[in-house]
What we know:
Elements (H helix, E strand, L loop, with lengths): L3 H9 L7 H16 L3 H7 L4 E10 L5 E12 L5 E8 L4 H17 L6 E7 L7 H14 L9 E5 L5 H15 L20 H18 L9 E5 L3 H12 L3 E7 L2 E4 L6 H11 L9 E3 L1 H5 L5 E4 L18 E3 L8 H9 L3 E3 L1 H4 L2 H15 L5 H26 L3 H20 L4
Parallel strand pairs: 3-4, 3-5, 6-7, 6-10, 10-11, 11-12
Antiparallel strand pairs: 1-2, 2-4, 7-8, 8-9
Nicotinamide-adenine-dinucleotide binds next to helix 8 and strand 7.
Amino acid sequence: MANPMADEQRRFKGSDEKNPFEAMSERFDRAAQLLGLEPDLYAVMRVPSREIKVYIPVKMDSGHIEVFEGFRVQHNFARGPAKGGIRYAPDVTLDEVKALSAWMTWKCAVVNVPFGGGKGGIICDPRQMSLGELERLTRRYTAELIDFIGPDRDVPAPDMNTNEQTMAWIMDTYSMHARHTVTAVVTGKPVALGGSLGRREATGRGVLFTVNEAIKRFNLTPEQTSVVVQGSGNVGGIGASLMYDQGYKVIAISDIHGAIYNSKGLNIPEVLEYLDRTKSLEGYADADHLANDELLEIECDVLAPCATENQITSHNASKIKCKILAEGANGPTTPAADKILFKNGVFVIPDILANAGGVTVSYFEWVQDRMGYFWREDEVNQRLEEKMVASFNELSQLAELHKVDTRTAAYMLAIDRVAYDTRMRGIYA
Ligand code: NAD
């Protein structure tokens, strides 16, 4: 079994950076201070409501039982049920899940959807597991959490290494316990099982909508805008593809193994087809091959880190040469890097806005499941665009009003909304 402490030390050792929960807390503290948040509310909102750790026994294909460690953190319920993805990874840690759950609270508040924040994770290496093992792992994890999740309690969704199939297993397991089908217990399900049209593309599409707004500030059109994307999965791959379709010049993209670069622009549908076929960008013709950290330093108009946390740190922030940083991933930039980026005039579309398209359409999915009435894809996309553009404008206005950077403005917007609702509800004692 993976050792989370060792992983945590490996990931942050020798660095002046903080772990993701500390990074989140530092930003929370700054925004709370600027808002003049009352000490009592500060104390309540800074910590998660609930941290659940489960040990999940799974019968492997070989016949032996392996015990996996899993988490679900429910950060805040003030505005509605907890909401957030489940991540399967060998190096996922409780601190990481805590940070991700808090980011979900702030993200849902930034786009003003009636959810709190939650996140889950299981320490496992899905690439080494069969489909049957993954199904048994998912079903047992769901059963362990059965009293804590539900359409009005906590609504999971996919995250790294989990997908529509994972959500279908969770929905089915929960429904077997409830003795009737409960589609609204998860989002990101297959469309045939109560999923929403447009959900799969929603996070990448949300990145596109916020980038569309940001380039206006630089008097750029999509055709004049060069884009570099880190990651080619659900967020990066789809985001790059949608930007390509809209005329943006995507000059570089990467996966975990490395990056490809062509200053004249890449043919993204062709790149993604190649990646799908060969499972790697290695050997792709018509492009230079670079390491992931070199990709981040390419001169471009828009840099979209859409892979994982802590990619832009105090070590490389001064080498970032983009005008706009569109954070498709959660927590790709550390607080120490923020200071350098803002000093250098980089316009940051913070993660809790840039990648909020996913949770926004998850909210639409939950609404459609509960109505039992499903919308057309163009309706979903139009409602998503309205929410993303409105949130972008609210955030920009707040940043200008308070003369703060966009990251601080995003936290201020979110914390203010959660604080208002907490104050109105009062603390039950
Ligand atoms: P994914 O697994 O589909 O894709 C991840 C991509 O990043 C892959 O191309 C992978 O090769 C690459 N990658 C992984 N680790 C890397 C590393 N250390 N260095 C460089 N590249 C690496 O995952 P996803 O769903 O696209 O999620 C990506 C990020 O976006 C995560 O931070 C996730 O929390 C966030 N996010 C996802 C959604 C969603 O709807 N999928 C919504 C909001 C935020």
